[in-house]
Amino acid sequence: MALGTSPFSGEWSTHHRGTLNATMTARVKIERVVTEGKYNTATGQYGGSVMQLLYLGRANIDRIARPTRREFVSDAADNQMTQVQIPLNINEAVPAPAVLRFQSNDMLTVLENKDMPSMAGEQLFMRGDFGASEDWGHTLHFGYNSKES
Fold first, then answer.
1. Which regions of the chain does DSSP assign to beta strands (E)?
2. Residue 107 burial (C-beta neighbours within 10 Å; 0-12, 13-18, 19+)
């Protein structure tokens, strides 16, 4: 096969995008801090933050161990990454941004995950937007350091 050619029709990914969307069984929201809140010393909490809703809707969530020191098994748990796929053309956010441009530290909140209900309410932070040449959806990586959670 010649370089730059494909055995698939040019319309293949468009026709099969619905298959990927149908496998998305979780619901998430992705927000960005517009204005930082202030720390309340009495409660130990931040309050008054203004958030911009970037995305609301279906998602596919997968845990990925990303060890940085091969000799330590515990490192995989300490630096757990989560890969999230969201559809390209479906966004329930109102108003929805005309173009989704994610950036470091955008916050993902898991609203519902039928396959793992214990994830509901979990908050993760954007580490990267790993685009692909297929127009299936956005592939995003989120994480947190479990030693700090």
1. 26-35, 38-40, 45-47, 50-64, 81-87, 107-113, 123-129, 137-143
2. middle
The dihedral of CA 105, 132, 83, 90: what is its sign? positive
**Closest to 127 (Cα-Cα) out of 111, 149, 103:** 103
List of domains in the chain? 18-143 (2.40.10.270)
Residues 102-128: tens digit of each pLDDT: 999 899 999 999 888 999 999 999 988
CB 19 within 8 A of CB 93: no
C-alpha dist (Å) from residue 3 to 6, 13, 84, 134: 8, 19, 30, 17
pLDDT single digits (tens) 9-64:
767 667 777 777 788 999 999 999 998 888 888 888 778 888 999 999 999 999 88
